[in-house]
Amino acid sequence: MTTMETFNLLQPYKIAEETFVIPWALEAPPVGHFPMNSMVIRGSEPVIVDTGAPAVRSQWLEAAWSVVDPLDVRWIFLTHDDRDHAGNLLAVLAQCPNATLLTTWFSIGRMAEEWETPINRCRFMTDGDTIDAGDRTLVAKRPPLYDNPTTRALFDSKTDVLWAVDTFAMNVPAPVPETAALSPDEFRDGQLFGGRLVSPWVALTDARKFGSVVTDFQHLNAEVVAGCHTPVLRGPQIPEAYDHLRRLPDMPPWTEFTQADLDQWMAVAESSVPPEQPRPSGT
Ligand SMILES: [Fe+2]
Ligand SMILES: [Fe+2]
């Protein structure tokens, strides 16, 4: 474990009492990096919130077990079945034999194309459901933006920490633990880009209807907002982020990179490859 002063990927850091983010990030040229985080709540009944990406499975597991003993884990909250969230689910289930998986019927079905989730270890948790996790009550809530129909956010009413899943996704110039480290422009542009990137359908929504969903979510009154693809938000950046969300239905969709962009990147990459050395004579 580490503090924010020594932020490193795959080294958990504390964001609230007994609450830790496991940070990871993917380089995403030419727009910087995307955070790829998960969370652990180390209460009287510890909760793993999403299970990280398969690309760093062993490091992710090591990071998680540096926060909590896997045998103590009581709950695994799976926000949805995308690979960046469910990628290590079977390993986590295997190493946490005392944990119940909080998920949905549709998530289990969607994962069945790759593995059989042990339904005897599952508990369905749909929009608005709560779970008594010993010293705290956790609420599952569909967030305003998502890239998978099964998505549920998680709110911890003890710490007022909200795990917003893919809502508030953003690119960052370099991985940082908190959005406070970003410039106002980086924060605004990242929020407006990330939201349209993960949920291009937001352009199809009625701004007033979408705004009421945003307001309902905002009424959870989170003091700390963490998410898979964003550094942690606090203070005035939380209402700012909600204001950015409300703007998305009226913004033009993000224009995807095209084959011309790819051609240009490849040309740059090829021109930066050192020329082949002439072979020594006689070989
Ligand atoms: Fe997702
Ligand atoms: Fe995601």
Structural notes for this entry:
By secondary structure, the protein is of the alpha/beta class. It has a single domain (4-271), classed as Metallo-beta-lactamase, Chain A (4-Layer Sandwich), CATH 3.60.15.10. The protein is 28% helix and 19% strand. It has eight helices and 15 strands. It has a seven-stranded mixed β-sheet with strand order 1-2-5-6-7-8-9. The longest helix is centred in the last third of the chain and has 15 residues, at 184-198. The relative contact order is 0.13. Bound molecules: fe (ii) ion (2 copies). One fe (ii) ion is lined by residues 82, 84-85, 166, 228-229.
State the gist of this model:
With 283 residues, the protein is α/β, with parallel strands linked by helices. The chain has 8 helices and 15 strands. It has helices at residues 57-65, 83-86, 89-95, 105-111, 184-198, 207-218, 237-247, 259-271, and strands at 13-16, 19-22, 25-27, 33-35, 38-41, 47-49, 75-77, 100-103, 122-124, 130-132, 137-141, 153-156, 161-163, 224-227, 230-234.
